[in-house]
Write a structure and sequence with these properties.
mainly alpha, 2 domains, 6 helices, extended
Length: 115
């Protein structure tokens, strides 16, 4: 047990996990279900309509499509940089991702249509 204010050492990931072993855990199925509901039902159902939604609230089609394209570019960059955590650690990677997400939300909030 850690004393108050103590920092736990980062434990290395356990080796020896196989697909068969993972399939037998509730954590694996929870992650599969959560990802399926979020991406399948939440994000992607709405994502295909974002350009039209933006046009409906007054943004130009070109601007809306550009924002949609940026989403795709940053998604690809995020997928390609996923191995970053192997180099700098999980905590630093999540911290960087959270800071970038906050910055992206701030930029999104400040967007004004100039057309």
């Amino acid at each position: 047990m850690l004393e108050a204010g103590a920092i736990a050492e980062q434990q290395p990931l356990t080796r020896g996990w196989t697909l068969r072993k993972a399939l037998g855990t509730y954590q694996f199925w929870f992650l599969i279900g959560a990802q399926s509901f979020y991406w399948g039902l939440g994000a992607y159902m709405v994502l295909g309509h974002q350009v039209k939604f933006a046009e409906d609230v007054g943004y130009s089609g070109t601007f809306a499509a550009s924002v949609f394209a940026l989403f795709g570019i940053f998604t690809a960059a995020g997928q390609l940089s996923s191995s970053l955590s192997d180099w700098i650690g999980r905590e630093k990677t999540v911290t960087i991702a959270a800071i970038l997400a906050i910055g992206a939300l701030a930029a999104l909030i400040s967007v004004r249509d100039t057309s």
